[in-house]
Specification:
With 208 residues, the protein is of the alpha+beta class. The chain contains 4 helices and 10 strands.
């Protein structure tokens, strides 16, 4: 058997290296959110299509109690359900005296917002977008305040009772409904405690 020419060996090695680099790059990129296992929650917006029934179709928002109000059916539980689960529930309700063999499709049009709190310049509620990470959430909230700890931050996923502590540089994915919290440094924590005490001490020497 003739040995493989050196040029082919070099070319094969280059292709393998390129594939390995592409694989590592894609692994570092946060995946698009949303899948068949996504559970609906308050403030999610959904599009419901009942085929051949335009009056029963439209866009709806899951309310604070986890329900959507639909034509004919009225209130229906959506919170905690997948889009597929909700499709089955709506179809069953419509088949119960309204339509023969209804065909229903449910898709999420707008995910519920997430929140950034603590030591950022603009804490508050922000719209979720696919590919959102903890670092991009902080940037969206105006970046760190002068009091912030910039090396670590905390993320609490909706439905969880505890936060997770992550390095600020990690590409930690943010999900709809998550809370991102940025701590203040120990120095500023101490100053916040001492400031009222300093005011009381100064007051002792100014009151005649």
């Amino acid at each position: 058997m003739n040995p493989m020419p050196l040029s082919r060996i070099v070319r094969a090695a280059a292709v393998a290296a390129a594939l390995a680099f592409a694989g590592s790059a894609s692994a570092a990129t946060p995946p698009a959110y949303g899948g068949t296992d996504y559970r609906l929650g308050a403030n999610d917006k959904i599009r419901i299509t009942v085929y051949d029934e335009a009056d029963l179709s439209g866009e709806f928002q899951v309310d604070a109690t986890g329900f959507v109000r639909l034509p004919l059916i009225g209130q229906m539980k959506a919170g905690g359900m997948t889009a597929h689960d909700l499709e089955g529930g709506i179809a069953a309700a419509l088949a119960n005296g309204y339509l023969n063999e209804p065909h229903v499709n449910v898709e999420v049009t707008t995910y519920r917002p997430f929140y950034v709190v603590g030591e950022v310049l603009k804490p508050g509620e922000y719209p979720f977008a696919n590919g959102m990470t903890a670092a991009s959430a902080v940037a969206l909230a105006g970046g760190y305040s002068p009091k912030a700890v910039k090396s670590t931050l905390y993320v609490r996923h909706q439905g969880d009772s505890e936060e997770i502590r992550v390095a600020a540089g990690e590409a930690t994915p943010i999900r709809p409904g998550d809370v991102v919290r940025i701590d203040s440094t120990t120095f500023w924590d101490v100053m916040d405690v001492l400031s009222p005490l300093a005011g009381v001490s100064a007051l002792r020497y100014t009151i005649p």
